[in-house]
């Protein structure tokens, strides 16, 4: 025991550790089992929610083990990294041997292996082995890439072999997995994603990144000409559609309808229909209700425009709008913010929530002010992403499927036909097969070959 | 008037009948029962296919017009169909009837589940995110994979039954094919299933990229499909290790099937984007 450890250096030992299929079995199972955690614990929530859900004690433990961002945690990434090293080392380690199998200097066939094979079919032919020889070798030469005849004591053996190169299929699969991982890495390092809320009629050329809220220039502009939502009679949404125009250097380059599942791809950016919403237009009606008489006086107004209060009691300017205005912990919904300059005294802000027309009563001024007839506009919520990893990932998909197809459906097989003389005019023919890398389907192949040979011999007899 | 739901209830019954006949044929060595079983299997599968096509036409009559793979109900109908197709292929190619019982039973159970009121057989119009050809390919490839893995699971059960205890050639166990045949059949079904769930994951990724702008997002359903994939990859590699044959592989196949079931039905209990299949 000691001897072997001494004689193999550290690098050798590391190499052998990673060259084993046992390790890959362990890694694959460990990845499968640990992946479950992230499906049971919601990922990337707020710490408060976790604390509420699991309590102080478990929260601590889960947090320490990175269960809240499991798939990004160092230990999960380490498992993946080990799998990659495992695939690389294992493939290199075996490539030499596989190469020799695929391109042998002189193929070796051992009769013993075929005689011991589980898959055998035998038949009796009423001819001598010599007479049959031409038929049998002819068949094997036609159907197998390599074939060879060997004499035995009372007959002969004919070997046939196909599909040596399919041994490379597993390597193709492993290469595709490496490529996939490279693609995913590129996606996560160089890809980014953001959004753009584009009101109908507007043009914009910047997106806001999802995690950092930073702004990124696209290098071209988008204009939304129209947005519509269609519903089924039951009220379910049927289609979201934005009419998008791409503008570059002041010119309209392209005009497209953007719907879910049909993104626009332009200059490396992918543009998706994601959400929609309403924003108020610039015009609305300010309604002043005289608190003493109840008399209502409407006045058309727009943002930034100075409006005089009825009876010359001062001036008001609506300055801004908020979609979800928060007032002392209450969400007032769509709300205008304005500045009131009374006849005498200091200017004061007035909050005008569209959905709560009586809100301004609280101020106890001479007039209660609210807003009606808001001219809303739709905006389309675009999700915009850039992901240079996609072509690599998709290429790896194609290669992987090709690799699977080769390994699973094109096997390396050897067939042996043994002809044994029973007496002058009778021969026992035994068809047997092996798969040197233990692929299934040998049984069927043996049956097929045996059936074909039986039929061929029968036909020759008849003619 | 014949509608697809009614047709499916007949088909459910015929699958049940087929399962029963396969069981009788297997236990009492009755050739007649075996013939009836196979015939019922063919009729049920053909009926299932007709019901699927009829359902497709019904979506047009309702005015929506979509490929009927848009709800749990529709996916279950497709699942039983794929089980029928793959099983019949195996029976005719390998001349093995012994997993017929499991195939017919799984198809029967899938359809019986589909008929529960909680599953709901109404035709629903498609949400915008589900309108995609990639989605259709995604679901179809997945279910062919699931069906093959379901059959692999039943072969593994037979393997364990045959290899446990003394005298594997006596009584009912004597009628189970040889271990090497079962082993090979499992392997072949797993390869087919693995290829197809891989295709399912890949087409799902392409669809997700088109619909949501990302090809992978660790959504629970995605993650569970990856877990399933890892388990079957383990099986394929465990076969390459010395000493890992027969029983142990059968156990991995059973574990893999548990993951398939959870990916299909269990994940709905977890939060995520895949609302139904
Ligand atoms: C997710 C990761 C992996 C996948 C999907 C995968 C896939 C495959 C497939 C489909 C085969 C053919 C199986 C068969 O012949 O039945 C195969 C063979 C093989 N794999 Fe992997 N593999 C993965 C990881 C690994 C790793 C980490 C190792 C490292 C030891 C490895 C080592 C091998 C070996 C040695 C073979 C046999 C090659 C031959 O027949 O010459 N695989 N792999």
Kindly describe this structure:
The complex is a heterodimer of chains A (463) and B (277). Chain A is elongated. In chain A, strands 8-7-6-5-4-20-10-9 form an eight-stranded antiparallel β-sheet. In chain A, strands 1-22-21-3-2 form a five-stranded antiparallel β-sheet. Chain A has a four-stranded antiparallel β-sheet with strand order 13-14-17-18, with no helix packed on it. With 463 residues, chain A is an alpha+beta fold. The N terminus of chain A is likely disordered. Chain A folds into four domains: 94 residues; 105 residues, TATA-Binding Protein; 113 residues, no CATH class; 92 residues, no CATH class. Chain A is 36% helix and 37% strand. Chain B folds into two domains: 123 residues, Four Helix Bundle (Hemerythrin (Met), subunit A), CATH 1.20.120; 151 residues, no CATH class. The radius of gyration of chain B is 19 Å and the shape is flat. Chain B has 277 residues and is mostly helical. Classes of the chains: A alpha+beta (463), B mainly alpha (277). The interface between A and B is large, with 52 and 53 residues. The complex binds protoporphyrin IX containing FE. Protoporphyrin IX containing FE sits at the interface of chains A and B. Protoporphyrin IX containing FE (HEM) sits at the interface of chains A and B.
Structure summarized in a few sentences:
The complex is a heterodimer of chains A (463) and B (277). With 463 residues, chain A is of the alpha+beta class.
Q: Helices and strands in order, then pairings?
A:
The complex is a heterodimer of chains A (463) and B (277).
Chain A: H1 2-7, H2 10-18, H3 21-40, H4 47-64, H5 74-102, H6 111-115, E1 119-125, H7 129-143, E2 146-152, E3 155-162, H8 169-190, E4 192-199, E5 203-209, E6 215-231, E7 237-248, E8 251-259, E9 264-266, E10 269-280, E11 283-290, E12 296-302, E13 306-308, E14 314-322, E15 326-327, E16 330-331, E17 335-342, E18 348-353, E19 367-372, E20 376-386, H9 390-409, E21 413-423, E22 426-434, H10 442-462
Antiparallel strand pairs in A: 1-22, 2-3, 3-21, 4-5, 4-20, 5-6, 6-7, 7-8, 9-10, 10-20, 11-12, 11-19, 13-14, 14-17, 15-16, 17-18, 21-22
Helix pairs in contact in A: 3-5, 5-8, 8-9
Chain B: H1 4-28, H2 31-61, H3 72-94, H4 100-114, H5 133-163, H6 179-212, H7 220-238, H8 247-264
The structure holds protoporphyrin IX containing FE.
């Amino acid at each position: 025991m000691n001897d072997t450890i001494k004689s193999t250096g550290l690098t050798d030992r590391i190499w052998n550790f990673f060259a084993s299929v046992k390790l890959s079995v362990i890694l694959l199972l460990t990845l499968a089992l640990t992946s479950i955690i992230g499906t049971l614990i919601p990922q990337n929530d707020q710490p408060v929610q976790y604390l509420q859900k699991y309590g102080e004690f478990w929260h601590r433990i889960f947090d320490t083990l990175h269960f809240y961002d499991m798939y990004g945690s160092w230990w999960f990434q380490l498992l993946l990294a080990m799998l990659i090293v495992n695939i690389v080392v294992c493939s290199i380690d075996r490539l030499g041997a596989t190469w020799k199998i695929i391109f042998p200097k002189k193929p070796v066939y051992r009769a013993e292996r075929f005689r011991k094979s589980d898959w055998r079919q035998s038949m009796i032919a009423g001819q001598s082995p010599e007479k049959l020889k031409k038929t049998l070798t002819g068949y094997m030469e036609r159907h197998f890439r390599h074939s060879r005849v060997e004499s035995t004591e009372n007959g002969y053996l004919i070997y046939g072999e196909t599909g040596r190169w399919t041994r490379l299929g597993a390597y193709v699969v492993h290469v595709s997995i490496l490529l996939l991982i490279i693609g995913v890495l590129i996606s996560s390092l160089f890809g980014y994603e953001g959004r753009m809320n584009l009101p109908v009629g507007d043009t914009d050329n910047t997106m806001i990144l999802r995690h950092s809220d930073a702004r990124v220039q696209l290098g071209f502009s988008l204009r939304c000409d129209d947005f519509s939502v269609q519903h089924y009679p039951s009220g379910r949404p049927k289609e979201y559609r934005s009419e998008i125009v791409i503008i570059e250097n002041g010119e309209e380059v392209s005009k497209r309808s953007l719907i879910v599942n049909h993104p626009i791809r332009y200059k490396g950016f992918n543009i998706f229909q994601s959400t929609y919403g309403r924003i108020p237009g610039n015009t609305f009606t300010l309604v002043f209700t005289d608190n003493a008489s109840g008399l209502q006086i409407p006045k058309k107004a727009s943002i930034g425009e100075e409006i005089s209060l009825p009876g010359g009691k001062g001036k008001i300017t609506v300055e801004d709008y908020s979609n979800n205005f928060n007032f002392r912990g209450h969400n007032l919904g769509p709300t205008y913010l304005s500045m009131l300059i009374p006849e005498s005294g200091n200017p004061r802000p007035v909050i005008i929530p569209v959905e709560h027309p009586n809100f301004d009563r609280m101020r106890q001024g001479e007039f209660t002010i609210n807003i009606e007839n808001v001219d809303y506009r739709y905006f389309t919520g675009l999700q915009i992403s850039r992901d240079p990893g996609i072509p690599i990932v998709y290429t790896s998909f194609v290669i992987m499927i090709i690799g699977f197809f080769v390994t699973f459906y094109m096997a390396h097989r050897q067939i042996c036909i043994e002809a044994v003389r029973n007496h002058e005019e009778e021969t026992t023919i035994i068809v047997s097969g092996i798969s040197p890398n233990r692929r299934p389907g040998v049984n069927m192949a043996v049956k097929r070959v045996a059936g074909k040979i039986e039929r061929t011999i029968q036909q020759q007899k008849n003619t | 008037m014949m509608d697809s739901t009614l047709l499916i209830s007949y088909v459910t019954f015929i699958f049940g009948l087929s399962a029963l006949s396969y069981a009788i044929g297997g236990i009492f060595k009755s050739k007649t029962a075996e013939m009836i079983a196979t015939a019922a299997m063919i009729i049920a599968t053909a009926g299932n296919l007709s019901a699927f096509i009829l359902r497709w036409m019904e979506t047009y009559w309702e005015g929506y017009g979509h490929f009927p793979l848009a709800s749990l109900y529709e996916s279950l109908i497709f699942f039983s169909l794929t089980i029928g197709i793959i099983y019949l292929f195996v029976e005719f190619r390998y001349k093995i009837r012994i997993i017929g019982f499991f195939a017919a039973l799984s198809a029967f159970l899938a359809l019986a589940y589909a008929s529960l009121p909680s599953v709901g057989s109404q035709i629903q119009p498609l949400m915008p995110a589900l309108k995609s050809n990639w989605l259709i390919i995604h679901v179809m490839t997945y279910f062919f994979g699931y069906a093959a893995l379901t059959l692999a699971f039943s072969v593994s059960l037979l393997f364990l039954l045959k290899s446990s205890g003394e005298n594997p050639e006596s009584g009912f166990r004597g009628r189970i094919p040889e271990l090497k045949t079962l082993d090979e059949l499992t392997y072949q079904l797993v390869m087919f299933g693995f290829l197809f769930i891989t295709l399912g994951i890949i087409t799902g990724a392409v669809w997700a990229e088109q619909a949501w702008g990302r090809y992978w997002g660790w959504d629970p359903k995605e993650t569970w499909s990856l877990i399933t994939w890892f388990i079957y990859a383990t099986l394929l590699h465990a076969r390459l290790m010395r000493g890992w044959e027969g029983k142990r592989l059968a156990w991995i196949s059973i574990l893999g099937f548990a993951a398939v079931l959870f990916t299909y039905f269990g994940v709905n209990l977890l939060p995520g984007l895949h609302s139904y299949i």
